[in-house]
Design brief:
By secondary structure, this protein is mainly beta. It has 2 domains: 22-120, Tumour Suppressor Smad4; 125-188. Helix content is 7%, strand content 26%. The chain contains 2 helices and 13 strands. The strands form 3 sheets. The chain has a 6-stranded antiparallel sheet, with no helix packed on it. A 4-stranded antiparallel sheet has the order 3-4-5-8, with no helix packed on it. The structure holds zinc ion (2 copies). The site of one zinc ion has 8 residues, from loops. One zinc ion binds next to strand 13.
Length: 196
């Protein structure tokens, strides 16, 4: 019998990968647009200009009260915006029906006091220490098992893992992911910014 969790594993969706494939929130400061990694579970947009994670209950009767809440579904990372009933928060220039909106890539969020954000699901290819898994995970290039703790890259496009060390530079061996064609350069930055 195949345990449901085992089936999920074959699709390369481990909790550790979900943590690596991280959404971003674009916001402006004096230096222009910058992307903040959404690595917490909760952000308060009323704490603008820089939202911060906090546990306090949502302030009542604030026209700008809105929160971003991480709501993963079946191991796939997802984010929702929750707005207070009298909030003037808009997503893509529209009011937020029932105070709830599941965010999609490049959604524009504008708070009641006019501060603009963009949500992005794009994540950057980064070399991390391979977290390990219950079953062997094979490198997308050389097909050898990747050892826990080995330097590795999780492709932001498809979630396939590759070795990436001086000895085994499998991720950067080609300029594209062998499975989804995502560029393998490690220093290209985001392919989309709010200026596009
Ligand atoms: Zn390899
Ligand atoms: Zn890929």
């Amino acid at each position: 019998m195949i345990h449901p969790h085992t089936r999920l594993m074959t699709h390369y969706l481990f909790q550790d990968e979900v943590d690596i494939l991280m959404a971003h929130l674009w916001m402006q400061d004096v230096n222009g647009w910058g992307a903040r990694r959404l690595d917490a579970a909760l952000y308060d947009l009323a704490a603008a200009p820089i939202p911060c994670a906090e546990e306090a209950p949502m302030g009542s009767a604030s026209r700008k009260a809105a929160r971003l809440i991480r709501a993963d579904a079946d191991g796939v990372p997802a984010w929702a915006l929750i707005a207070s009933p009298d909030s003037a928060v808009r997503v893509n220039s529209r009011a937020v029906p029932a105070g709830l909106c599941v965010l999609a890539d490049r959604d524009e969020i504008r708070t009641g006091d006019g501060i603009q954000y963009f949500f992005s699901t794009e994540s950057l290819a980064t070399v991390v220490s391979f977290p390990g898994a219950e079953r062997p995970v094979y490198c997308g290039r050389c097909r050898e098992p990747i050892e826990a703790g080995a330097p590795a890259v999780c492709c932001p496009g498809c979630g396939i893992w590759y070795n990436q060390s001086a000895e085994f530079p499998c991720w950067t061996y080609s300029n594209k992911c062998a499975f989804c064609g995502h560029p393998t350069a490690l220093d290209t930055g985001f392919s989309w910014t709010p200026e596009d």
